[in-house]
Amino acid sequence: MALPMKNTAMKKAMKASPMKAKTMQAMKVMKKKKAVSKIAHGKLAKSAVFKGKKEKTSTGLKKSDLMKSKRGRVVTKKQHAKGKALFQKYAQRWLDAVMKARKELGIKGFCAIGGKNAQGKALYAKAKAFYAEA
């Protein structure tokens, strides 16, 4: 059974222990600054790299691999080229056919292609014919 400490001198001796001195020294030591990453992560990674705030994205894209699209989004040059090629391959022919049909039918302004009215149905039929031709 331990006796309760009544002696104040004993309490002071416990307070000034070498253990406490070590912890006080440790608290005064400054911590080293954490290194800032050069790799961009997240949703705006490509944007950060394009602006020059970071060196590359987590997937390894550098500024030389990126560009701004006509809508203002930062995209890869490879992705942009692929999108353009796919448009040329699939959508351009149909677009040209619809434009030619609109010109022949004399349609100006909005007209739903293949809509409920006769004009839309005629436009769709004509565009389909030109599409098959090309």
List the helices and strands and how they pair.
Layout: H1 8-15, H2 18-28, E1 39-40, H3 45-51, E2 56-57, E3 66-68, E4 74-76, H4 77-105, H5 118-133
Parallel strand pairs: 1-2
Antiparallel strand pairs: 3-4
Helix pairs in contact: 4-5
Q: What does this protein look like?
A:
The chain is mainly α. The protein has five helices and four strands; from the N terminus they run ααβαβββαα. Strand 3 and strand 4 (74-76) form a beta hairpin. It starts with 7 loop residues before the first helix and ends with a helix. Residues 69-78 have a biased composition (Basic residues). One of its GO terms (biological process) is chromosome organization. Residues 1-21, 55-78 are annotated as: Disordered. InterPro entries: DNVP.
Shape: rod-shaped
Gap between N and C termini, in Å? Answer: 104 Å
Average pLDDT: 88
Order of helices and strands: HHEHEEEHH
